[in-house]
Amino acid sequence: MDTNAASAPSPRGVPGGRGTVIGMADAAGAVTALYQAHAVGMIRLALIMVGDRGAAEDVVQEAFFGLYQGWGRLTDSDRALAYVRSSVLNGCRNVLRQRSRNERRERAAVSGGGPTGFGQPGSAVESAEAAALIGEEHRQVLDAIRALPSRQREALVLRFYLDMSEDEAARALGVSKGTVKSATSRAVAAVGRLLQEES
Amino acid sequence: MITVEDRARAAMRAIAGTVNDAPPLRLVEVPKSRRSLPGRGLVRVRWGGWLAPLAAAVVVLAVAVSLVVIKSIDGGGPAAPTGLSGSSAPVSITLSPVAPASAPELAAAAQLISERVVQSGLPGAATVSGRNVVLTGLAADKTALEGLAGMGVLRFRHVLLEEPAGGAASGGASLVQPGVLRLFRRLACTPGESDAAWQQEAGYTTPADWNNPTAQVVSCSGGTKYVLDAATVLGQEVTGALPAPSQPSGQWAVALTLNDAGASAFSALTTHLYNTYYSGTTAGNQNDMVLDQVAAVLDGTVLSAPETGGPVTGGHLQIAGNPPAGLTRAAASELAAELQDGPLPVAFRIAETSTSSQPASR
Questions:
Q1: B58-69+153-327, CATH topology level
Q2: Mutating which of A141, A154, A188, A198 best tests the B interface, going by the most B Cβ atoms within 10 A?
Q3: Who among A12, A134, A191 is closest to B15 (CB)?
Q4: Residue numbers of the domain that contains A187
Q5: Which ipTM was obtained for this model?
Q6: Do residues B202 and B218 touch, judged by C-beta distance below 8 A?
Q7: pTM listed for this prediction
């Protein structure tokens, strides 16, 4: 019988862009290496955003898993970290959105509706442990940050925690430099106002 | 005077400083065996255990490894190698359709099998030869190649009755249609028997019988006998199937993604099962333990029937092997390849397997 079976099979009918066995093995190694290098930083970022360690770890886990699953579609592996960071921001936004939706529902159930006040952040969700570790004053500031609209909160965190320039933050958030500038200054003003109301 | 900016920086640094380590990355969750029943080859795992607080739970199905390798194809007796059995010897597997198939169907099936072979990283190809399809490759890959010729119809079905070998049936007989219940009682499942054997005993003659999505079906897997409900998720609702290495064990699994329809059907079923049966399961009620299960069924054979430990809403499922051996990379690649592009239009039986006496090209 024909003995050419051992030569390379023709790759017919395999649409491009699908992960191959080899590619997925590479992806696992690459994603694991990225995780080892950046997981702590990403969890810190998520924890600032959501205030809950478990939720932060889950958001980061999901982001890296998403990177792994989409590895074949990632054209430039240098973009991987930026992709993970924006997934983390996105995941945190969803956590906070879900939380405020739940709180609104609870408040509506208790009071029969009424205005949902700006500046009633989900501090109850933050673990007692984290609250004790960081102290009441810091907790108030973080509560205020979490009560901001997403864009303002993200601009503030990227600029003042990650120390990104306005240009870098604009690229990371996919908005203009001017938007970063105004969102940051509004965020600072709003946090100041919320802290004053609290004291 | 301390500015708001300074206070924000200090607070963010303070809470960030509470994190100094990260849990291990889980690209695939390692299945955790909760308990196993006597005489049962499959591991029970909880659906959506580790990500229960998150909507997008990734779920692990534990698969008895042998079931992945031994597919539902009737081997027609063991093939006796006639020549070299070394890794370089070629093998030729003749696949004949279970039911008469048209030429275009055969061509499409051969094409799909070839794609599966390429995807699983093996040398080889399938071509139409008369009324059959002939799959050629290396003798060393014989078992894998035979597996790739499986029809590859995947269903997710609610488990209604389960009877381990030598044990008693548990579940909800009242949920089973009378005819199917009679069939279940009549059927004997023997550990190690071929799929063809129990299918014949059950009066199932074509894939349309054991794959029927709208009917309750019986099944035998590793000696355990099942009644499975009409399918909740069909194979065509699986939009992605990729081999995925499992961390930190280094074992392999297959990651499945369901489309919206599949994800929402799966979510509805697991929510219902969790709400109805899970508390009874934790209390040790045997019937609830069976009824809390969803079976992943490939070509009529139960790959795994994990119990539902929480609603699974994300549409991401993973098929992993039994610890400690787990799935090999090759087995995960084969299973993924078989599921990736959907089932073959034709079901085949292996009519003949022959190895050449000539060594392959060197």
A1: Gyrase A; domain 2 (3.30.1360)
A2: A141
A3: A134
A4: 127-199
A5: 0.79
A6: yes
A7: 0.50
